[in-house]
Amino acid sequence: MGVTGMTAGLLAEEATCAVCGRPVRAVEGTPSRQEVGAGTTGYALAAWCRLDPCGHTFTVRRGGLIY
What confidence tens digit (pLDDT) does each residue in 29-56 have? Predict the structure, then answer.
């Protein structure tokens, strides 16, 4: 997964990972829309997300709940 440094905060005060149950501080991931060149934008079919600090990774399809 090529995480680009995009980090999203969480709306829930006590967010936990559904896999391991550890507290989650943030979600890191790749944006669905990235500039490829001058005037050209590429759109991914899904965005990669990784939970911080546990590292569990998942994808969210375009048009999905948190995409």
Answer: 877 676 777 778 777 777 788 888 999 9
- The count of structural domains within the chain is 1
Please, are residues 5 and 28 in contact by the beta-carbon 8 Å criterion? yes
Asked whether residue 54 is domain-assigned, the answer is: yes
CA distances from 18 to 3, 7, 22, 24 (A): 21, 19, 8, 10
- Whether 1 maps to a domain, the answer reads no
Pairing label, strands 46-52, 26-29? antiparallel
Residue/partner pairs of 14-17 with CB below 8 Å, 24 or more apart: 17/51, 17/54, 17/56
Residue positions counted in the chain: 67
Could you list the residue range(s) of the whole structural domain that residue 17 is in?
6-61
